[in-house]
């Protein structure tokens, strides 16, 4: 009888009756062939692999990660509650000790959803990893978490949510933002003034294949994780680096994804993108599950797999080697020194930016003010206005907030005026207030 | 008149049913080495001087297949398997001679790699060299496209006595289970053939000309001849007989827990509006996971003969059975002895029971009667915990659509039906432990045989259509046709219903009142680029497990 080396939990929720619209890449058919492959392989029958029914997240779960405008149910569908719920299920089963690793194969994805949510961005409305991470931190007291985003697109939403937090390390590997949506994720995006260096972006050149990708994992991602020493490693497991993916330009393979999973050895993987529904997803997902279970995945090969054809050029590999050196150099300078160099020394830091919601066609303007703090992640206040005529103020008080930041956050919320709605996300008391 | 036989591990229960109910009943000791003899003794036991020509139907459950798996007495089977991308097929090796050949299909049934016919021939030669006369042929995704299995089957013609193909036994995806099921079918075929021939001959000799049916793990039946096409489906028909026997007494539109309390084990199952809950994929027997449709049943090591011991001041019940109760000459006290002490079990040596329970009570610091009541209460609570855990497991089954997630049916038992030896004694205590209305099934001693007698023929068929690739198939039924681009869900459902009806009739169903239902109907638009390239339709239909109508009996 086949037995997994470690006890694995799976949530498989293909949402066969939900889509943004029928011709959208993120549609009902997306996990159909994956289901065929994992059911036909009998993966759920392997001893030590257990399939779980997803939970539904609550509004309170969502409120730990987001300011939803005007509220949670307006910017989501039931499918989002299940998708984030599947991730939460894996977290709970892991913390209760029923499983040693978990993989939430759910849709829709979430890593483009930022802290403020006016609608859908890049097929994402709420950030399912962030909701899970906040659940792990507030309900289970997990201190340090690393999120490694291996989706081909920059995980700009997750980056945004953890931008100011040095306790949650965010590493994103992705196709260079100069060539792909959402056009961000450059090395210079390294985290906010209170968490400088704890956002690590590794933009890879188009056509990166197995060798270059795995080189990056072994020579940048793993050494950074070794330094950071997280209590948990989360993988935002997007599968759109595949050579057959219709909306990206990378050359990664099922074998590559399986090896990546083996090397990274995440506690929980959460499916993100991946739109080559027939030629990639069935094989990539089977490979990842086998790798997580510690079983032989060497036979998981795409029907037209040919590593020689997909191999990177010498130039590309050289570029990647240099990139990894730069990433490691920047990482070694993380913390106050890097912060002062990039942001200067100020009591409050301000920034303004505009955000586009491509899925829902919404434009948002944001003004943020952050309290500089060396004792906690720092409170901040966001003023956000959308072209749908919503004007809100969101105040965030971080987990383990120091008394000064707490007081500052409370004052901001008390004095919030001139907006349609004001929200207080007080993570120190696990509280969410609206007025 | 109908004869129903439930051939169990130790006893065989037999009933003769007329339109007005049970006419005769008997219990025989099962001779595992000679099941035919057991069946005949049972038939003679209920027939008396009734004219055998008046028998219109015989249904039997048999332990033959289950025992062959558990005792590992299947005939040697050679397996030839083609896999393609995925897990290493050698990990699924089973049987006396396992061979992997090249050839692969994908999830939509498209050929990825041609079948290596030379390798197939070589594998056949190696299997024959070992003197093996039975083979199983399985390819990955053969339920999407059976052509590779069919090509192997053609090549096997004349070389082997017994040939089984994976695609005929189920439309459900699961390659390792398909391999194991195919192996089991091929391995039990000879024994089943001998058994069926012997039964037929003996019946004929007695003047019984009625059709003979065999009970399956899903609580349905098929004819003795149809059983030869898939003998593996007769595994675990014992528990299914019990559950079918509870159906006539189960209230409509309610969720009911069925508890069959035997000497060593208690089997539990769930009925929803008189229909048993099935296993999602198929039966598991002796550690072998199969695709044979089976009703969901859980067996726990607690029964009337469970050994009573203690650990410190803690009472332990089971899981071992050391023999019968003390009052029936056994070596250790059992729940049956507790019943004897309380006057709930008559017959046997009450003094012996009293002595055993007195000792147990003294060790636990309780009076003899108090400890006896405590034993029965604990037994009921342990059965309740296992039953509720099973229900929780059924409700925790994964779902794959929003609709099922948000509006899925949640099983919530509202009543208990108890059967087996101590049913009448334990029914009130079980009801109290579970907080549910509870009663013993009438004729609880032979209710399982009544269940077998009245079970209706069941089967299922899966229809797949892919209008982009232009086919519609039902591999189990050997059906394949071109699908026009306009082929739609209604067409698929109509075809599935037609095929399942035909199959049921072939398996021995009565055309009157044949109830066909659609289990699953999914349709996906296949988008390539931004336009619709076709429809992918999947329909599964079945004849619901249930009972035939039989005059006043139900
Ligand atoms: Zn990424
Ligand atoms: Zn992506
Ligand atoms: Zn602070």
From TrEMBL, chain A:
Species of provenance: Desulfobotulus pelophilus
Please report the stretch or stretches of sequence annotated as the Histone deacetylase domain: 79-279
The record's listing under Pfam families reads: Hist_deacetyl (PF00850)
Source superkingdom: Bacteria
Q: Which protein family is it in?
A: Belongs to the histone deacetylase family.
Q: What is this protein called?
A: Histone deacetylase
Residue ranges annotated as coiled coil are: none
Entry's InterPro entries? Answer: HDACs (IPR000286), His_deacetylse_dom (IPR023801), His_deacetylse_dom_sf (IPR037138), Ureohydrolase_dom_sf (IPR023696)
From TrEMBL, chain B:
* Pfam families (alphabetical): Hydant_A_N, Hydantoinase_A
Determine the domain of life of the protein's source.
Bacteria
- Any idea where the Hydantoinase A/oxoprolinase domain is? 179-458
Its transmembrane ranges are none
Which residues are in the Hydantoinase/oxoprolinase N-terminal domain?
Answer: 3-157
Name of the protein: Hydantoinase/oxoprolinase family protein
């Amino acid at each position: 009888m086949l037995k997994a080396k470690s006890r694995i939990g799976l949530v498989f929720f293909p949402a066969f009756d939900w889509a943004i619209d029928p011709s959208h890449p993120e549609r009902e058919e997306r996990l159909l062939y994956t289901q065929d492959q994992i059911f036909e392989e009998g993966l759920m029958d392997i001893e030590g692999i257990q399939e779980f029914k997803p939970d539904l997240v609550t509004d309170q779960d969502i409120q730990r990660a987001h300011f939803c405008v005007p509220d949670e149910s307006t910017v989501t569908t039931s499918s989002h509650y299940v998708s984030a719920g599947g991730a939460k299920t894996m977290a709970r089963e892991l913390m209760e000790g029923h499983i040693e690793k978990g993989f939430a194969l759910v849709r829709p994805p979430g890593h483009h959803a930022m802290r403020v949510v006016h609608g859908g961005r890049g097929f994402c409305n709420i950030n399912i990893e962030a909701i899970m991470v906040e659940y792990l931190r507030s309900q289970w007291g997990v201190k340090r978490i690393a999120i490694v985003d291996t989706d081909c697109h920059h995980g700009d939403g997750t980056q945004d949510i953890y931008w100011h937090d040095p306790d949650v390390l965010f590493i994103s590997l992705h196709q260079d933002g100069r060539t792909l949506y959402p056009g961000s994720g450059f090395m210079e995006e390294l985290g906010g003034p209170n968490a400088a260096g704890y956002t690590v972006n590794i933009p890879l050149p188009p056509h990166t294949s197995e060798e270059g990708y795995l080189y990056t994992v072994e020579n940048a991602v793993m050494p950074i994780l070794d330094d950071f020493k997280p209590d948990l490693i989360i993988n935002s497991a997007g599968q759109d680096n595949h050579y057959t993916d219709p909306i990206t330009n990378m050359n990664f393979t099922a074998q590559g994804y399986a090896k990546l999973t083996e090397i990274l050895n995440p506690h929980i993987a959460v499916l993100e993108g991946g739109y080559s529904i027939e030629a990639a997803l069935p094989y990539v997902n089977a490979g990842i599950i086998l790798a997580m279970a510690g079983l032989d995945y060497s036979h998981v090969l795409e029907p037209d797999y040919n590593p020689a054809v997909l191999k990177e050029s010498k130039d590309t590999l050289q570029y990647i080697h240099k990139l990894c050196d730069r990433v490691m150099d920047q990482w070694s300078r993380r913390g106050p020194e890097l912060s002062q160099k990039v942001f200067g020394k100020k009591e409050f830091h301000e920034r303004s930016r505009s955000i586009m919601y491509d899925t829902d066609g919404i434009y948002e303007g944001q003004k943020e003010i952050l309290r500089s703090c060396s004792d906690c992640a720092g409170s901040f206040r966001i003023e956000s206005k959308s072209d749908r005529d919503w004007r809100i103020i969101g105040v965030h008080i971080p987990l383990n907030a120091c008394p000064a930041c707490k007081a500052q956050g409370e004052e901001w919320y008390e004095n919030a005026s001139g907006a349609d709605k004001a929200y207080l996300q007080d993570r120190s008391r696990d509280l969410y207030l609206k007025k | 008149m109908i004869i129903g036989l439930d051939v169990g591990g130790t006893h065989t229960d037999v009933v003769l049913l007329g339109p007005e109910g049970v006419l005769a009943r008997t219990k025989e000791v099962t001779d595992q080495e000679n099941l035919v003899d057991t069946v005949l003794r049972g038939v003679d036991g209920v027939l008396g001087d009734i004219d055998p020509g008046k028998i219109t139907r015989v249904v039997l459950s048999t332990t033959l297949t289950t025992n062959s798996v558990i005792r590992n007495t299947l005939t040697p089977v050679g397996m030839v398997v083609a896999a393609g991308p995925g897990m290493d097929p050698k990990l699924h090796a089973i049987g006396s001679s396992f061979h992997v050949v090249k050839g692969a299909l994908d999830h939509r049934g498209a050929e990825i790699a041609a079948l290596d016919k030379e390798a197939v021939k070589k594998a056949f030669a190696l299997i024959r060299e070992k003197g093996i006369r039975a083979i199983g042929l399985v390819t990955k995704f053969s339920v999407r496209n059976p052509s590779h299995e069919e090509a192997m089957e053609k090549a096997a013609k004349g070389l082997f006595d017994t040939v089984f193909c994976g695609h005929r036994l189920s439309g459900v995806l699961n390659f390792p289970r398909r391999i194991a099921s195919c192996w089991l079918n091929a391995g039990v075929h000879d024994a089943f053939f001998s058994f069926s021939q012997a039964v037929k001959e003996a019946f004929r000799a007695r003047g019984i000309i009625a059709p003979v049916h065999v009970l399956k793990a899903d609580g349905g039946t098929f004819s003795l001849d149809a059983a030869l096409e898939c003998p593996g489906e007769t595994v675990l028909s014992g528990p299914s007989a019990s559950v079918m026997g509870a159906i006539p007494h189960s209230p409509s539109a309610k969720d009911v827990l069925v508890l069959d309390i035997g000497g060593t084990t208690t089997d539990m199952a769930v009925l929803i509006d008189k229909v048993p809950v099935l296993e999602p994929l198929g039966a598991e027997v002796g550690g072998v996971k199969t695709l044979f449709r089976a009703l969901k049943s859980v067996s726990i090591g607690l029964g009337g003969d469970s050994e009573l011991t203690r650990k410190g001041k803690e009472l332990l019940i089971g899981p071992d059975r050391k023999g019968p109760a003390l009052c029936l000459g056994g070596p250790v006290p059992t729940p049956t002895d507790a019943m004897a002490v309380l006057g709930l079990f008559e017959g046997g040596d009450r003094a012996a029971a009293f002595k055993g329970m007195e000792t147990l009570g003294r060790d636990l610091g309780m009076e003899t009667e108090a400890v006896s009541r405590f034993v029965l209460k604990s037994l009921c609570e342990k059965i309740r915990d296992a039953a509720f855990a099973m229900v929780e497991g059924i409700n925790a089954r994964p779902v794959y659509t929003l609709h099922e997630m948000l509006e899925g049916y949640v099983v919530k038992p509202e009543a208990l039906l108890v059967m087996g030896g101590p049913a009448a004694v334990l029914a009130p205590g079980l009801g109290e432990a579970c907080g549910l209305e509870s009663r013993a099934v009438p004729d609880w001693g032979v209710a399982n045989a009544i269940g077998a007698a009245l079970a209706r023929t069941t089967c299922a068929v899966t229809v797949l259509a892919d209008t982009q690739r232009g086919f519609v198939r039902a591999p189990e039924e050997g059906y394949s046709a071109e699908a026009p681009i306009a082929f739609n869900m209604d067409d698929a459902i109509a075809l599935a219903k037609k095929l399942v009806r035909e199959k049921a009739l072939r398996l021995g169903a009565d055309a009157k009142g044949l109830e066909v239902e659609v289990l699953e109907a999914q349709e996906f638009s296949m988008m390539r680029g931004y336009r619709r390239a076709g429809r992918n339709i999947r329909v599964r239909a079945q004849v619901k497990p249930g009972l035939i109508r039989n005059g006043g009996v139900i």
